[in-house]
Amino acid sequence: MAKPSSPRGAARQRVLDASLELFALHGVSGTSLQMIAARIGVTKAAVYFQFRTKEEIVAALLEEPLCALGRVLDDAERETRRVRRVEVTLQGLVDAVLANRRGTAMLIRDPGAALALKQIEAFTVVGERLESLLLGSRTTREDRVSFAVLMGGLMQVGVSPYLEDLDDVTLRRILIRVGGRLLGVDDEAGVRQN
User: What does pTM read for this prediction?
Assistant: First the structure.
């Protein structure tokens, strides 16, 4: 995240940092605004001044990763061949997951996070764009299950003890290759590793 340039920006960032820590430990549902305030040594009113609800905090935590992923999807949508659209989308998605492992772990562990996500329009829009780019006109049951397995598997990256020994470069390469297989593009021309 960018460094805040104002005192209010710094205070906001402290709330976000503490929230992410607490959400990872206790989940969104198990974290209160009071807990966030106590973590950073301010009053609940000071947290409330920055964010009125936990859902607003979740939205703020996802704002930058969703914008970055949106830019990747813009690039992918300009591609004319399906294989290339899938390559660009898959690479950007994997990079986003690897760059935000803590946030991804928070999302998968907590049903409260899932409820908060449903209220974030940008999350829904990105999800729909991902599905469109990765599946295209492929809408069989098997295609939809493959997409769900891919998305669920990517969400596990931040929490799986089976992947702790893999460095990001190796993990990225494997995730893109496996994702390509799940989406059926390895048969068409293979997914390139950029």
Answer: 0.79
